[in-house]
Amino acid sequence: MSNFIWGVVQSAFQFEMGDPLRRNIDARSDWWHWVRDPFNIKNDLVSGDLPEEGINNYELYEIDHRLAKDLGLNAYQLTIEWSRIFPCPTWGVEVKVERDSYGLIKRVKVPKEALEELDGLANRREVLHYLAVLKNLKKLGFTTFVTLNHQTLPVWVHDPLWTRSDFEGSKARGWVDERNIIEFVKFSAYSAWKFGELVDFWATFDEPMVTVELGYLAPYVGWPPGILNPKAAKKVIINQMVAHARAYDAIKEHTKAPVGIILNIIPAYPLNPHDARDVKAAENYDYFHNRLFLEALNRGRVDLELDWNPVKIHHLERNDWVGNNYYTREVVKWTEPRFEELPMVTFVGVEGYGYSGNPNGVSPDNNPTSDFGWEVYPKGLYDSTAEGAEYGRPVYITENGVADSKDILRPRYIIEHVEEVKRLLENGIDVRGYFHWALTDNYEWAMGFKIRFGLYEVDMITKERIPRRNSVETYRKVVREGVE
Ligand code: BGC
User: CA-CA distances (angstroms) from residue 247 to 92, 98, 126, 184?
Assistant: First the structure.
């Protein structure tokens, strides 16, 4: 009997809201405020679509779990939303903090009394909701994967509009401010204490480098807080690393379950492999986007100053598994360093390839592109997963999928990417699971509902789940046939 994990994955903000009676709204996250900001809407930074018009998984979770079960899946991945559990600040709850010689937080002790106090602050209804969701998954026999941070933050931790308009004055600057590490550790400890018996795998973060790259280095893409501030980007990198490691320790106080981190490992290829500068650009991309986190958390090699001189910090070497979210590749070419604080940012994505393609076309290499313009490049799944596995931890492909509302590319996309999983296994690479993004359509961040990733289409009026038949049958079949 094979142990291979087959699943689907959802995040809280992108799937939960959408009850036609407007119940179960979470108005306490940064993204909630971000997507309805008039300036953002007027300037096309966001779509104007609102998450409360969405999928309504909050109420319809039993239906979604059943659909996943009927696909033959054995695992389900979801987020517990921090802002739902703690809609108001937890600052007053006392914990003990110790620092190392660099001034980094090396220990956060969350005692029993603190957990009880947190229990008093937690939104009881939301706690009961996630307990019910997880119990239902266990009842159906799923292995459960829970992520604690999938981009969204409580607005008391991160107020993106305040931070954008007054960076120095803002009192809620998300991962820029170290004190939020401590609050995240409280949330992580509380979650492990409260939900631990129902969770088989924990992940601290989903795609921490996306937060950095889109939030602090590309203000035109519609990602909060939407500022250009390389110095802040640098802090956000290090603070998320520390937050991961301290959350890891906090979770381990309550459970033996493996704790990992989900990265979007993106393989970067030089535009001209015979041009030394393009080759260097690809290396730098890999170092910045992929290796900083992999090296720090798996080997304790931390490039604190971002100057290619990592130091050994044992207390950051904390990781049991690596999640890889793979959609497409990057093809890069050299550009002179763009930011003094980030000397390795010497690359730009070449138009037409990877994430920089045109919707529903073909790339210069003749690969099809999705509704999102992303190039279909299955071999990149092999390369990125193999890279993740270099660190001696098992890798789970925690997201893979394609924006394809008409379901033209998706069936083949699934087959070709699962072929790469087989090739990884044949070559002895320790990959243990594959999750499809996503079971149903979702709220695609700044793009809203235009972009459709679901195996099941969702009618946004009736909330009906309508199979994209070819893909549903294809995924069912590959799961039944297995990879081993
Ligand atoms: C993110 C998801 C997102 C998906 C498609 C992933 O990198 O984790 O939240 O919806 O990409 O863009």
Answer: 19, 14, 21, 7
The yes-or-no answer on residue 420 being catalytic is no
Provide the pLDDT confidence category of residue 484 given band limits of 50, 70 and 90: confident
The kind and range of the H/E element at 276 are helix 276-285
Ligand 1 atom nearest 11 alpha carbon: 9
Cβ of 399 below 6 Å from ligand 1: yes
Catalytic annotation present for 98 = no
Shortest CA distance to 52 belongs to which of 74, 31, 72, 73? Answer: 31
> Rounded to an integer, what distance in angstroms lies between the CA atom of residue 235 and that of residue 308?
16
Catalytic residue among 16, 399, 420, 444, which? 399
Distance of CA 472 to the CA centre of its chain: 24
Please give the distance, rounded to the nearest whole angstrom, from the Cα atom of residue 2 to the centre of ligand 1: 28
Helix (H) or strand (E) holding 202: strand 201-206
Tell me, using a 6 A CB cutoff, whether residue 328 lines ligand 1.
no
Strands 321-325 and 259-263: parallel
Q: List Cα–Cα distances, 235 to 91, 97, 173, 317, 419, in angstroms.
A: 21, 19, 11, 18, 39
Residue 2 pLDDT > 90, yes or no?
no
Query: For a substitution probing ligand 1, which of 290, 355, 399 has the most ligand atoms within 8 Å of its CB?
Result: 399
How many other CB atoms sit within 10 Å of the CB of residue 481? 8
pLDDT digits (tens, 9 = 90+) for 79-132: 999 999 999 999 999 999 999 999 999 999 999 999 999 999 999 999 999 999
The residues near 165 (Cβ < 8 Å, ≥ 6 apart) are: none
